[in-house]
């Protein structure tokens, strides 16, 4: 296999791993079950306009819309959002659809790179190194993001929305349904949980890459010695 192709496959592992892990985890939190977990916390903010039962129902149905399990007509029929809120949720769904496509493409590229490098004993060490380096990159990136989120979450939250949404379409008052269902506390908890889960996964992947790399190098050395 040409050296340039080996380098490309290794690079794909390194740069593709961080987004793949974090995007995989986003879908874990984009569920009614996670919403129930957050709402079940004794210190989670209560809604002023909705009782607990209605709040859970409307918020869960909204998540189902974002996941593509409800039509726009069904979402509007909930009757709890104004036009600005509906537009924002449509924008969020479009973003999620794009993220889903990117996640799938990234996963395929990672699999191709991993299989391509692991298929031959002589290049397995590169596969292991790619996983380890990608894991270390993930730890560095999300360690920094986690520290920033813990100390300056409002800035992080605002910056994210300014990047992915136009103007002030994402700004709402405390009494709007979106904020009643998903207060800032919800997003803070989610961000921290997302970072922690991604870091744990990266450490596991890194450990696998490290152990696999040692084994691959030892196997190569044994092969060389047997030929001498």
Would you write up a description of this structure?
By secondary structure, this protein is mainly α. The chain has one domain (about 5-225). Helices cover about 80% and strands about 0% of the residues. It is built from eight helices and no strands. It has helices at about 5-30, 30-40, 50-65, 70-75, 85-120, 125-165, 175-180, 185-225. The mean pLDDT is about 95.
Secondary structure elements and pairings:
Layout lengths: L2 H27 L2 H8 L12 H15 L5 H5 L6 H36 L5 H41 L12 H5 L2 H44 L1
Helix pairs in contact: 1-5, 1-6, 1-8, 2-3, 5-6, 6-8
Question: What is the gist of this entry?
Answer:
By secondary structure, the chain is mainly α.
Characterize the main sheet.
Answer: none
Low-confidence stretches: none
Rg on CA atoms, Å: 22 Å
Q: Which geometry do the CA atoms define?
A: elongated
Mean pLDDT: 93
Discrete helix count: 8
Write the element-wise H/E pattern from the N-terminal end onward. HHHHHHHH
| Termini Cα gap | 24 Å
Structural class, by secondary structure, is: mainly alpha
* Total number of distinct structural domains: 1
């Amino acid at each position: 296999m040409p050296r340039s192709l080996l380098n490309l496959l290794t690079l794909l592992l390194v740069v593709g791993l961080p987004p793949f892990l974090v995007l995989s985890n986003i879908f874990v939190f984009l569920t009614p079950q996670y919403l129930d977990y957050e709402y079940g916390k004794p210190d989670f903010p209560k809604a002023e306009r909705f009782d607990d039962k209605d709040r859970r129902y409307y918020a869960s149905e909204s998540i189902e819309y974002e996941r593509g399990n409800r039509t726009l007509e069904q979402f509007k029929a909930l009757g709890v959002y104004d036009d600005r809120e509906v537009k924002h949720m449509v924008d969020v769904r479009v973003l999620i659809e794009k993220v889903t496509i990117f996640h799938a493409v990234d996963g395929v590229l990672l699999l191709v790179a991993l299989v391509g490098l692991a298929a031959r004993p002589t290049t397995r060490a590169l596969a292991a190194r790619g996983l380890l380096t990608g894991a270390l990159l993930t730890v560095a990136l999300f360690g920094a993001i986690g520290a920033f989120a813990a100390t300056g979450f409002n800035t992080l939250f605002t910056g994210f929305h300014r990047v992915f949404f136009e103007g002030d379409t994402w700004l709402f008052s405390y009494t709007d349904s979106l904020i009643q269902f998903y207060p800032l506390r919800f997003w803070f908890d989610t961000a921290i949980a997302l970072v922690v889960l991604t870091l744990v996964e990266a450490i596991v992947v890194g450990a696998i890459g490290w152990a696999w790399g040692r084994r691959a190098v030892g196997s190569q050395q044994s092969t060389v010695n047997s030929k001498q």
